[in-house]
From TrEMBL:
Entry keyword annotation includes Repeat: yes
Keyword terms of this UniProt record: Leucine-rich repeat, Repeat
Pfam family, one: LRR_1
Region (Disordered), start-end ranges: 235-277
Annotated Gene Ontology cellular component terms: cytoplasm
Stretches with biased composition (Basic and acidic residues): 239-250
Protein name per its UniProtKB record: Leucine-rich repeat-containing protein 10
Recorded superkingdom: Eukaryota
Taxonomic source organism: Phascolarctos cinereus
Amino acid sequence: MGNTIRALIAFVPTNDCQNYLLGDLQEMPLDKMVDLSSRQLRRFPLHVCSFKELVKLYLSDNNLNSLPPELEQLQNLQILALDFNNFKALPPAVCTLKQLCILYLGNNKLRDLPLELSLLQNLKTLWIENNYLTQLPEVICDLSLLKTLHAGSNALRLLPRRLSSLQELRTIWLSGNLLTDFPTVLLHMPFLEVIDVDRNNISYFPSLAHLSGLKLVIYDHNPCRNAPKVAKGVRRVGRWSEETPEPDPRKARRLRMAKQEAPAPPAPPLPTSEKVD
């Protein structure tokens, strides 16, 4: 009932209605966090921009499609959640928040990300899942401290080659895209710990045994003919995942040499000819 009332009130652009949706939020919270999630907001409350010491701002699950330029006053902001809204483009003011560490943009209508995103050099976690992305924005490769990238449920077919320059990246989530080949660039990223390519169209997996940092690979729901080979101790989730990982290459080499050095078995005796009466 409460959500229904909020949904109706959200269409009435009066100050009284806005105050009802915001509750008692009139001054800077002591915990430096403002959570306005699921308030049916259609416009951002400008007076929040006066909370200049704000560290966390949650605007998830509203009806927002823009943010005011005044947002740039929140220069201490470290976490910003804009997921489950109606953004078709990232508001420019977001790219001015240079202390951001975590940015949630999932479940919007984004088709690209602006070049100005590269200004967020403290960003460590980026969620862009469930948007309208047909390619991974190249600007992401400029986020040198990025550790976690969630890009699932888009329409990605390829990854940019420059992605390998993100040497701090540890987890990449690509489930629910349109990948037909395992992204080659990931084979050159030995520092990755988690690779998720679940629910794509990958038919063949190359060996991942050389990725020394890998701990988990999720490849389920692909039309693959093989399981990716991994080093000992790496967990796999998908078809044939219970099979033994790729053996130690040194042991495999010794085994081949042993087979080569083993004496050949004696030839079987020739069959005796039939006797003549």
